[in-house]
Amino acid sequence: MQIKTVDLTKTYRLGPSEITAVNKVNFEVNEARFIAIVGPSGSGKSTLLNLVGLNDYPTSGKIFIDDADALLLSSSKRRKIRLFRMGFVFQTFNLLPTLTALENVELPMSLADKPQKEQREKALRLLETVGLGKRLFHRPKELSMGEMQRVAIARALANNPEIIIADEPTGELDSKTAKEIIALLFDINRKEKNAVIVATHDEKIVDVADTIYTIQDGRLRLEG
Amino acid sequence: MRYTAVVKEMNVLFSGQIMVVSKDAIVIQAIPIGGGMLPQNYTEEEIQNITGVEKAVPILFVTPIGIGGIIQAVPVNFSMGIPVEDWRMILGPTPLKGNIGHFPTNESSNEVVVGPSIADQYNWTVGTNITISNQKLEIAGILDTKLGLLNRCVLMPLKLAQKLYNYPYSVNIITVKPIQGYMQKNLTDSIENQLTYVKALTEDERYDMIEPVLAQVETWNIGLQTVIFLMSLILVMTVTIMSVSERRRDFATLDAMGAPLNYVFRVVIFETSLIGILGGILGIVFGSLAALVLASLYTNIPLAMFFPTFYEIIPPFYMLEIFLAVVFVCCLGGIIPAINATRMRIAEVLRAEY
Question: How many domains does chain A have?
Answer without folding.
Answer: 1
